[in-house]
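Build the 3D complex.
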Amino acid sequence: MNTEQAMARLTEVFRNVFDDDDIVLTAETSAKDIEDWDSLEHINLIAAVEKEFKMRFTVKEVSGMKNVGEMAQIVCERAKK
Amino acid sequence: MVRELCYPFDASEVMQKRRKLLRTLKEQSGNVKLRIAVLGGSTTSDIVKMLELFLRNRGIEPEFYESEYAQYWQDAMFPNAELEAFKPELIFIHTSSRNVQDFPAVNDSKEVCEHKLETVYSHFEQMWERLAQVYACPIIQNNFEMPMTRLLGNREAGCPQGRIDFLTRLNLKFYDYAASHKYFYIHDINYLSACYGLDKWLEPKYWHLYKYALAVPAIPDFAYNLSNIICSLMGKNKKVLALDLDNTLWGGVIGDDGQAGIEIGQETSMGQLYAELQSYIKAHKDLGVLLTVCSKNDYENAISGLEHPDGILKPDDFTLIKANWEPKSQNILDSANELNLLPESFVFVDDNPAEREIVAAQLPDTVTIGFESPEECIIALDRSGYFEVTSLSGDDAKRGEMYKANAARAAAQQQFANYKDFLLSLEMQAEICDFDEVHLPRITQLTNKSNQFNVTTKRYTQTEMEAVLASDHHIRRYGRLTDKFGDNGIVSVVIGRKEAASLHIELWLMSCRVLKRDMEFAMLDEIVKAAKSEGITEIFGYYYPTRKNAMVRELFGTFGFVKQSEDADGNSVWKLETSGYTPKNEVIQIKEEQNV
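Done.
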């Protein structure tokens, strides 16, 4: 899976979690860009991404992630394994 | 009802689509409102959000108070203006093993362990006592899930220093409290976490990242299980199991295989599996759940299947048997009409997805239970929680008999030319009395589940009902009806509020199982008698239409009230002068008050 494919699937997950079909993700997208992305939705988002890609983030990864680009990168690395 | 939220649901889909589901649910009308205070020992926000979905799906619209993070004890123990103003109608205490601060240490003596157990327990007990005193509403309390680690290995169980041992004994003390306090209910997360898988339930990152005492993906299961208790308390339990026969209650097709060919009983693995299911279903009768058959079969074949010598369920166990070639949705509708129940009270169990789909499409309020392989049926039925027990009342256990007795009455009716002669032959006796403590739970339960014979559909919480009981400004009567076929239990409740020389009827309801027995007239006679004795000259009746209560639109008219007004929505006001009133009941003998 390449970054582009990962971003496409992530977009779908984001649209579901935030119930907003207009969401367009870029690598720089972060919590401040999406209105409902607060700490609580973040948990749901992580859970939804884990489910979509059948993988688990570690505590360290969740605490360190800064934007969607970093999330996509982790997802791609895991998918390679 | 939103199917995505019915059991078995896809937990991750429910989490992902929460906002969308909530939007759909908010379009539903006719919900009962409920103020719930959630006092948490860990994060509760997503629990509350999920709980809202499941409650709304069962017709309950919650409003929440949430304690600040982990402030459950402080909120409960100290004066709290915000919580007092909120006036909770239900309190849920969300604690877990993470909230046990003082576990025994390995080198503690047995006495120290014992002391610690008492200390931790009393921390909770004093909280419950204060909550009951200040807020006087039902309390739901989590028990403790088993811990993540076992320092002593298997020895954790069986020595007082072990945490397994400690938590187990703590749980037992909670259960003792529950057994001796009505309105106190255990939310069994110990069982739930075991079903879910303890390692997954306790996945540590959810605690360390977000301070959740359970894994976030487990929250829908948690919230659903909790919602079952609340639905049961609010009278939302289902009442009837409508069961398919072939490949649901036994293996094979009775019409093709014959009685000797179907699999049921101890001879084969499949036969044993179906026998276990039949036993489990039969036990529901003791909870007051009605069993009915809903099968595409010739009637004689259905009966011969149920008469299989190794079968557990016999024809006599069923209140109704619908075995014919009509659509199953029609059969459920007919059953509902015959039992004076609504399709929403039915749970339909069938192995065939097409049949479930048809019933779901035709009867959107009827829930269906499906399974892919027969061994999954018993678990699906059990975990659905549609018959969650919050109290075992004598009336519940007898309900099946009551409906059977109704069938006997119907048969007896045919022998009489004249309906009044029939009613007299029933030798009915009514106990019509003022409310008392003993009957209050059943009275409150009735106000929350009667939809059809109910003029105002006013709902009462336990607290509100206790206020009515204590009030000098109300006339209250409950009615119990007995006849030669059996005791129908408490079937009618009337509440009127006094205002100078007027009485305003705030509630008039009756259970549909005693329709056309003139019980409403017996109640009216007693209300008018009580009103007159208190100097009331006028009684005002109110009818507020709902989707379900059309049968009582003219009730006050048949009582001899005169209609005063009616607005565009059909809300009407009626008046009766008490002076010229003549008693209307001629068929029910009124027993002298017992609780004087």
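Chain B touches chain A at residues 12, 15-20, 23, 45-46, 204-206, 208-210, 212, 216-217 (CB under 8 Å).
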